[in-house]
């Protein structure tokens, strides 16, 4: 995720990192060369180069813009839902910490409370690593004992097994007489919310937009941008390369941004900062028990990128 302070309008024109310009630079260069070819052909070999009517390009451009906006909105909806799910998970983690501290009548430094909160933090890290297809061993080993870590790593859905361990802890407290069935049900509902977050993230991660949409938009956009200089040359002349590149940049950049937002859990510049969100959730859990050994908060790098 790109996190940078507000800058002036002039500097914003030259921003590189996070602007997806590097992804569309090659096709923009091709479009510019086609614009130069159209200018040369109209002045030196007009009988070989057809002069296309610009009216169809206007109609196609409007239809293409609507379709690009539809796909962009669909991808941004996935991104926003993913951010909402992770925000809900942080809230539920805080609720579980408050539940473990106040309802059980255990001191904040009790090993049972520490284990329960470590399981909640482990759930967050395990989900992050599952969504990014990375190894959670180091994150889990820092929070849990070695035998439990190995038990978790043997599972296909590791966050789900951590929820089972959390539920066993809540049930054990109820059987110890620390609270009754009503409060147990309240605690289990918080686990249900975490399970809903897990399912929602898996649905977004495992169900991309229909492939036919991507293929159709890709083909239509690139063919439109390739033919655009030959439709503009008759009306704007020498300005064709610049105007054609500007229009192509708008369509190609929309396409590139939508491709990044389609999978908001990846490691691209405009994806969610899952590592930072995980650390912030763990810090919130440790602050609930007045812990001193908290992980350092993650900050953006020199490219204003927060991972």
UniProtKB/TrEMBL annotation:
Domain of life where this protein originates: Bacteria
Sample GO molecular function, one term: chloride channel activity
Transmembrane segments: 20-40, 52-70, 221-254
Keyword field contains Transmembrane helix: yes
Membrane disposition: Multi-pass membrane protein
Keywords annotated in UniProt: Cell membrane, Ion transport, Membrane, Transmembrane, Transmembrane helix, Transport
Residues in the signal sequence: none
Gene Ontology CC terms, in alphabetical order: plasma membrane
Family: Belongs to the anion channel-forming bestrophin (TC 1.A.46) family.
Protein name: Bestrophin
